[in-house]
Amino acid sequence: DMQEDKEPLFDAVDTLLASLKVFAPMIEKMGVNIDKMRQSAGKGYSTATDLADYLVRKGIPFREAHHIVGKTVAYAIEKNKNLEDLSLEEMQQFSKFIENDVYNYITLDASVNSRNSYGGTSAESVMTQVKMAKSFLDDNL
Questions:
Q1: For 36, what's the count of Cα atoms within 13 Å in the CB-facing half-sphere?
Q2: Which residues form the Argininosuccinate lyase C-terminal domain (predicted)?
Q3: Distance of CA 90 to the CA centre of its chain
């Protein structure tokens, strides 16, 4: 029977619909601690990729940039600091290409706002997605 493969799909749709019934009221009553979110987002060296991108923009091959970032992150962990809290002198131990402008790239806000392509995390990209979602809902509900 060609319909046997549809059963998992129907089960998935039922599960999704049941989840949405619970999800909407939960979101409505949810409290958001922005300070805690920001603090948590800054942990784990999430801006290390931005440091690598910065070095690549300075002309360093990605493989070498990755190696430099690895050493820099290991040092930051040893010193119990975030990347953006390292002094310029500390960072320059790992590459002479790191200059004062590095701080324009490795902060949490700079990292988030640098992702400005379709579906990105920048404020502009997010607002575009919100407008598209609202338009879709207005047209289809």
A1: 3
A2: 45-113
A3: 25
Model confidence, pTM: 0.75
For 41-52, write each residue's pLDDT tens digit.
888 899 999 999
Q: What is the pLDDT of residues 74-120, one digit of tens each?
A: 999 999 999 999 999 999 999 999 999 999 999 999 999 999 999 99
Does 87 share its domain with 48?
yes
Q: How many domains does the chain have?
A: 2
Extract the tokens encoding 86: 């390292």
CB 85 within 8 A of CB 19: no
CA distances (Å), origin 133, targets 64, 117, 125, 140? 41, 17, 12, 10
* Residues 73 and 99 reside in one and the same domain: yes
69 & 120 share domain: no
Measured CA to CA, the distance from residue 36 to residue 32 in angstroms comes to 9
